[in-house]
Design brief:
Blueprint (H helix, E strand, L loop, with lengths): L8 H8 L10 H13 L2 H28 L17 H33 L11 H26 L2 H6 L20 H18 L7 H18 L18 H11 L10 H6 L3 H16 L3 H36 L1
Helix pairs in contact: 2-3, 3-4, 3-8, 4-7, 5-7, 5-8, 11-12
GO cellular component, one term: membrane
Protein name: Fatty acid hydroxylase domain-containing protein
GO molecular function, one term: oxidoreductase activity
Length: 331
């Protein structure tokens, strides 16, 4: 097995992979070994593959939505069709996202290896865990992150945290793919703990490999970007899995400023009653569709409902900031 290395490959192999039967490894595991041997340092290798994966997946998955926004044909599935992001908005959003990636996510990625080592997570080691093990662990990560996100997101809507942190993310009442991580660096750090926390917590009870976490982050990026896409297609996942959140669920949160705080699933909002306004809205849309004699009439009625929800959301946002001002004056 040959490697392109920046350090002495024999030393790295003896240090990291002593006793490993390389002939028993599959293609992916061999490439994993090659990556770590090439860098010669597991901290650097883990940090680099994490950061590169994040950037490639985030902007790669956002690109199709940028293209879709530029093609009028797809507007029939746009949840808020009168709010298509302009190229300037896309670029402004990109700059903020890159800033958060460089100031928060990049340092956090370099700290991940030491943290994972402390709790016993495997990183450079091979072979990988079985498919069944990775599947149930990733399912746990999703469950953990969804509950964490619901609680943290709900907290971010309290007056103090909203004004100084979360308000940036609510700049767009009609979100688009790139806006998934358009947020204050502090929010990126807070919500990122939900993504990291499940894997670190699970290490306290069982063996976890970094590859499981790696795959989970890819899934999470797809989920977050798609939830902010602003499109609801007939083939979107929420029409197959009714408990899946999706863009239709999260778009209401941006439009109404309230409700629908969870990320992947709908059940925490249903359990805690934080989807009450959303459910009323969906019933009103359904009633408007049944009452309309044609699609044009329905679209006008739906737009009127959206305008009403947005206006109420703006009033609620102002009320939150007003409560903070009053509290500041009292203190």
């Amino acid at each position: 097995m040959s490697f392109n290395v920046t350090a002495d490959p024999n030393h790295v192999l003896d240090t990291l992979y002593a006793g490993t039967d390389f002939s028993s490894l599959n293609w992916a595991e061999q490439k994993w070994v090659a990556w770590y041997v090439w860098w010669g340092n597991p901290i650097i290798a883990t940090g680099m593959i994490s950061f590169l994966m994040h950037e490639v997946v985030y902007f790669g998955r956002s690109l199709p939505w940028i293209i879709i926004d530029a093609i009028p044909y797809f507007q029939k599935w746009k949840l808020q069709p009168n709010k298509v992001p302009t190229p300037q908005e896309q670029w402004d959003c990109t700059k903020q996202v890159l800033w958060a990636h460089l100031t928060v996510e990049l340092p956090a990625i370099w700290l991940f290896y030491p943290m994972s080592e402390m709790v016993g997570m495997k990183t450079y080691q091979v072979p990988f865990p079985s498919l069944s093990t990775m599947t149930w662990q990733i399912a746990f990560f999703m469950f953990f992150e969804d509950l964490f996100h619901w609680a943290a997101h709900r907290a971010l809507h309290t007056p103090l945290l909203y004004k100084h942190i979360h308000k940036i993310h609510h700049k767009y009442s009609a979100p688009f793919g790139l806006a998934a991580e358009y947020a204050h660096p502090a929010e990126v750090m807070i919500l990122g703990m939900g993504t990291l926390g499940g894997s670190l917590f699970l290490c306290l009870f069982t063996e976890v490999h970094f590859i499981s976490f790696f795959i989970w982050v890819i899934i999470k990026l797809f989920q977050a970007i798609d939830a902010h896409s602003g499109y609801d297609f007939p083939w979107s996942l929420q029409h197959i899995l009714p408990f899946w959140s999706g863009a239709e669920h999260h778009d209401f949160h941006h439009m109404a400023f309230t409700n629908n705080y969870s990320t992947s699933f709908r059940w925490w909002d249903r359990i805690f009653g934080t989807d009450d306004k959303y459910l009323v809205y969906r019933e009103r849309v359904k009633a408007a569709k049944a009452k309309s004699s044609n699609n044009e009439e329905f679209m006008k009625a739906e737009q009127a409902l959206m305008d009403e929800v947005l206006a109420e959301g703006l009033r609620e946002e102002s009320a939150v900031e007003e409560r903070l001002k009053k509290k500041s004056k009292v203190q």
